[in-house]
Amino acid sequence: MKGKVIMFIVIVLLGLGTLAYIYFTRELPTQKIASEFVNISINAYELNTPNTNVVVGFSIIGLDNNTININGQTLLQGSILESLPANYSYQICSYNLPNQTKYYSTCQTFNTFNLNNQHISLIVKRPGQILVYGIGNLNNQVSNLTLNIKLVSGDVYQNPVLCYNESANILFVTVGANLTPIASSQTYLNYQSCYLIPELNFTNQIDTIPINYSIWNMLNTQDYIGVVVYDQDYINNQWIDEVNGVSVGNGPIGYYFLE
Fold it and tell me: Which of 39, 67, 138, 224 has the smallest count of CB within 10 Å of its CB?
């Protein structure tokens, strides 16, 4: 009788050992692998129509020595799902697909530290069309001019740049106040100085930029200050000065000496 009890205990212990082996060598690693990934659902919509999806391309890159690099596109219906390794930071950016409506690129950073599934909405904006016009003419007494930039359509005119050049009789030019200098694009290398200026965020918004100059010799009809405003964002390998065949800027303009 005692031998049967001992045998029963041995069998039970062997069974428990087998179950423990299976759990620790198969089940537990599987659960661990599953817990090391986080599901990210992604959709995109235009700024003013949050209930209507649009299709854009997107890229996800890993930050902090994470080599993840994923490209995909959003859906007209629902969200697309990506699975990313946990405990990392990422950046997701939208980009334009061929032959689609042109949007500004938008980027977000996020992380998967808390292991929770996440949803990301890419809010895309249409480049706006601007009207650029100057007030005043060059003369030998008054040294103040005004540049007005008006957003006449679209969602936003993003990251705009103002560049200028001047004729030989003008000693120096200053534009605006506390503007950040920036290198000109290849398109506008003939302009001597360029600055970042405030973006326009709503239709009929007008930004007014003062322009001051000084002269070292009397001006004549050959003298000028030339100004151009363009968008520095680079979309589908072109500067945003024209979208779908329509100019979004209307520079360059010039201030001239009038006799």
Answer: 67
